[in-house]
């Protein structure tokens, strides 16, 4: 299985990282949300800007973020290695983040994981097992890049993957007849205007 890990042996060396002028502006705007001296509070947002620029998060980008935020690099590494939103090695075009925490597991995440494992090639699809994505009511859930795909089973998961393979972007959200997180079949309360 191709997992996104922090194993240094898997990580290509990136000697240099610099924010583009546009992304530097974005990072500074995030830092400006916090009082002077508290700019470190913007670290997750700044790392996200760096990752979107580079495609994944090499150590050189973490070091650049640390410099910008006036933080010790180790504190930035701690954050980047804790949150699964940060990929510490190159990934495929679509990152499949499969939730296997209890509600998703009870609702069939084993079958979802199997379908994703079969699709992984490291180029089009990479795979990462993650903890609760916060959408348990629509379990099982897979995050694909920035979107959630919900109420999946093996068949609908394969259909979603096939659509991505064809270059389409399947509709995110529930993959069954469900409006957002309302009961399957339609809302049962708060139905009047
Ligand atoms: S347990 Fe999977 S989204 Fe919460």
Task: Explain what you see.
The structure is a single chain. The protein has 193 residues and is an alpha/beta fold. The protein folds into 2 domains: 8-82, Orthogonal Bundle (Arc Repressor Mutant, subunit A); 94-172, Glutaredoxin (3-Layer(aba) Sandwich). It has helices at 21-31, 43-54, 59-69, 73-82, 102-106, 109-119, 154-165; strands spanning 94-99, 125-130, 142-144, 147-150, 173-174. It is globular and about 50 Å long.
Helix-strand blueprint:
Layout: H1 21-31, H2 43-54, H3 59-69, H4 73-82, E1 94-99, H5 102-106, H6 109-119, E2 125-130, E3 142-144, E4 147-150, H7 154-165, E5 173-174
Parallel strand pairs: 1-2, 4-5
Antiparallel strand pairs: 1-3, 3-4
The structure holds FE2/S2 (inorganic) cluster (FES).
Strand content: 5-15%
Numbering strands along the chain, what is their spatial order in the largest sheet?
2-1-3-4-5
**Rg of Cα set:** 19 Å
What's the helix-strand series? Answer: HHHHEHHEEEHE
Q: State the total count of DSSP E strands.
A: 5
What is the name of the CATH class of the largest domain? Answer: Alpha Beta
* Mean of residue pLDDT values: 93
| CATH-defined architecture of the largest domain | 3-Layer(aba) Sandwich
Helix content: 25-40%
Looking at this structure, what is the CATH superfamily of the largest domain? Glutaredoxin
Produce a short descriptive summary.
Helices cover 37% and strands 11% of the residues.
């Amino acid at each position: 299985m191709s997992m996104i890990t922090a194993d240094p042996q898997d990580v290509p060396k990136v000697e240099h990282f610099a924010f583009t002028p546009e992304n530097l502006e974005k990072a500074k705007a995030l830092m400006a949300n916090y009082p002077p001296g508290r700019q470190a509070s913007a670290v997750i947002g700044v790392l996200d800007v760096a990752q979107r620029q580079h495609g994944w998060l090499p150590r050189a980008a973490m070091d650049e973020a640390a410099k910008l935020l006036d933080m010790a690099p180790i504190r930035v590494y701690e954050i980047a290695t804790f949150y699964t939103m940060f990929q510490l090695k190159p990934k495929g075009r679509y990152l499949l983040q499969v939730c296997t925490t209890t509600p998703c597991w009870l609702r069939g995440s084993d079958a979802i994981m199997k379908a994703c494992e079969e699709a992984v090639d490291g180029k089009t699809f990479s795979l990462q097992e993650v903890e609760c994505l916060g959408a348990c009511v629509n379990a099982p859930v897979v995050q694909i890049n920035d979107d959630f795909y919900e109420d999946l089973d093996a068949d609908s998961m394969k259909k979603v993957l096939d659509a991505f393979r064809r270059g389409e972007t399947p509709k995110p959200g529930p993959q069954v007849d469900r409006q957002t997180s309302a009961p399957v079949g339609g809302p049962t309360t708060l139905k009047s205007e």
